[in-house]
Every structure is written in structure tokens, then in C-alpha cells.
């Protein structure tokens, strides 16, 4: 019996979320007195997962799996879970994982809980803490099925290096032909991705136009942050759609979220509420964001942001 983990990678490199799910699975494995087996698809350095708690890595190398395909990936995990007699399968809360996890749960006859934020308080009964009501509340949820699928919220548990080592085994499951492939349209850049970012600097319509985004990018660069934006900003074409965050955009679960010139509409907050510390910069003291924020500056972004960047550069 082991705990199985799906480790996401891009261009052969493990994503930060992959290291976090392995760290999380190790915490569960320690509680249950078992070990962690990771599944890696077309990833380089599969053995590096040992440093985060995996004992074994099932390495799938297949050129036909270049683009994410939920049905194919769910089939790989199902076969790995059965081979390893896994009672718990851990995935991240990325869009890809949220797509494949329900399919996998059906095939394994498992209960699936997403947006989990902590290691289980108990593994018998198996109870996990998850966010609910667009991150406004927490729920302790017991998974009663024999096999359990857990979706860990990104940036909730953290990456923990354990200094261990993992054996790597080639794994060649049978892969179904059908299924819809998903191709990322994000351009390859050196920038931090929103999903992996510990800090996100986000701009709204208060920035008046795309020509003013230089100060957002400069602040993000100083902080090593990803840049994001509100929905109207991407709808207006000021920023690419890949930066749109909120209920209908990408979810953000960063350690720090800085909102510049964003009013704090409920649909925006729904997607960023999981961030640990929220800071707002807005000229209007009545803007709803101030109620959701941990820190707020009532002021003109065009004055505040350059000064903030200057101060941070001096550190
Ligand atoms: P505005 O509401 O126009 O706010 C601009 C803010 O900037 C104001 O608070 C203003 O005081 C401030 N400001 C102006 N000048 C300055 C300055 N110089 N310095 C500092 N502050 C300044 N929105 C999302 O963001 N994400 C979503 O996923 C999303 N999904 C939606 C889904 C549905 C079904 C619907 C109906 C709406 C959705 N929206 C979403 C839109 C949402 O309701 C808001 O309209 C949107 O979030 C507002 O964007 P904003 O805050 O950038 O702009």
C-alpha cells in the first residue's frame, strides 16, 4: 500500500505544485505508516522527487503525451494506483488536475475532495480541511471510500525538502486513444506563472490603460512576482487573457496578493480569496476591496506604486 501522487511538469521540469503535492503526500504517508510513489510524465530528473519525500517514481516517457489529456492522464494514474495498491491519490488544484481528478475518482470508485489546505487531521476516519464558499469558509470533510482522491490547493502546504532519495522505474501503462487534448496558449516566458507564484501583483481598470503597466511589471520584477489583472482589463485587451484572475479567470492562492486599482468586485475576490495576505492600493476608501484586504493604501497608484518599488529596490 502506498500514497500515489501526480506530479505535473512543463517542458520536462517539475512545477512547484508538483513538489508541494509530494511534500504533502509524505505527511500523509508518515501518519499512515506507508510511503509515497510519484507518477511523472515526460519529466527530467524524476529522481529529484526523493528530496521531497517520494520513495519511488513511476516514470512515463511517451511523445504522444506532450499535450495534457485528462482521459489519458487519468488512465495512467488509475493503472499506477492499482499497481501500487494506493489508498490515497494526491493531485494539485491546477486546472489540469481539477479536470482529471473526477475522472480518476470515478474509475477508482473513490471519493474526491478538492481545494484541500492542510494535512488530514485524522487518517482514520480520513478527514481533510478544505475551503468552501469561494474561500470564505473552511469545511472539515470526511472521505469514507476505501480509495481517496485529494486535490491540494496550491501554496497551502508548502514545499518541504526531506533530503531523501527515490528509485525510478519505467512505467508503460496502456493509454486510451480518445479524449480531448488541452494545449496551453500561454507564451513561453521567463516570468513566474500565476499558479506557481508566491507573490502576485495585479492591476485593474484604475490603471487607465495598457501604457501604464510598466509600473506593475517593475514592482513585480522587484518582488519576483507574477503579474495578473482583473477581467475588464483583459477584456479590453490591455493585458493577455492568461493574466485574468477571479471567478471566471485563473484562481490565485499566493502568499501575497497586491491589487492596484481594482475595486474588489465579488467575482474578482472569489478567485483570489485563498491568498494569505492581500494588499490593496485604491483612491477610493469605500472600494469593497478594503473589506477583504489585510493591508490597504488609500492613494493614487501612480504615486504609491513607484514609491513602493523604489523603497523595495533599496532593500
Ligand atoms: P473597476 O470596477 O472599474 O474598478 C477600478 C478601481 O480602480 C476603482 O475602485 C477605482 O476607485 C480605482 N482607481 C481609479 N483610479 C485609480 C488610481 N489612480 N489609483 C488607484 N486606484 C484607482 N472580474 C474579475 O476581475 N475577475 C473575474 O473572474 C470576473 N468574473 C466575472 C463573472 C461574471 C459572471 C460577472 C458578471 C463579472 C465578472 N467580473 C470579474 C467583473 C467584476 O464584476 C468587476 O466588474 C471587475 O472585477 C471590475 O474590475 P476592476 O476592479 O479592474 O474595475
Query: How many H/I helical runs?
Result: 8
CA(first)-CA(last) distance: 49 Å
Instruction: Tell me what portion of residues adopts beta-strand conformation.
Output: 25-35%
* Ligands (ions, cofactors included): flavin-adenine dinucleotide
**Oligomeric grouping of the chains:** single chain
Helix percent reads 25-40%
Low-confidence stretches: none
Q: Pairing-aware structural class of the strands and helices?
A: alpha/beta
How many extended strands? Answer: 19
H/E element order: EEEHEEEHEHEEEEEEEEHEHEHEHEH
> How would a crystallographer describe the biggest sheet?
7 strands, parallel
* Strand order, sheet with most strands: 8-12-7-1-4-5-13
What is the radius of gyration?
Answer: 20 Å
What is the overall shape? elongated
State mean pLDDT (0 to 100 scale). Answer: 93
InterPro entries: DHS-like_NAD/FAD-binding_dom, ETF_a/b_N, ETF_a/FixB, ETF_asu_C, Rossmann-like_a/b/a_fold
Keywords: Electron transport, FAD, Flavoprotein, Transport
Pfam family, one: ETF
Family: Belongs to the ETF alpha-subunit/FixB family.
Description:
This is Electron transfer flavoprotein subunit alpha/FixB family protein. Belongs to the ETF alpha-subunit/FixB family. InterPro entries: DHS-like_NAD/FAD-binding_dom (IPR029035), ETF_a/b_N (IPR014730), ETF_a/FixB (IPR001308), ETF_asu_C (IPR014731), Rossmann-like_a/b/a_fold (IPR014729). By secondary structure, this protein is of the alpha/beta class. The protein contains 8 helices and 19 strands. The protein has helices at residues 16-32, 70-84, 95-108, 214-223, 231-235, 266-272, 289-292, 301-313, and strands spanning 2-7, 9-10, 13-14, 35-41, 54-60, 68-69, 88-92, 111-116, 122-123, 126-132, 137-143, 148-152, 167-170, 181-182, 199-203, 226-229, 256-260, 277-282, 295-298. A 7-stranded parallel β-sheet has the order 8-12-7-1-4-5-13, with helices on both faces. It has a 5-stranded parallel β-sheet with strand order 16-15-17-18-19. Strand 15, helix 4 and strand 16 form a beta-alpha-beta unit. Helix 2 (70-84) crosses helix 3 (95-108) and helix 4 runs parallel beside helix 8. The radius of gyration is 20 Å and the shape is elongated. The termini are far apart. It binds flavin-adenine dinucleotide (FAD). Flavin-adenine dinucleotide binds at residues 204-206, 230-233, 246-249, 261-263, 265, 267-268, 271, 281-284, 287, 300-302.
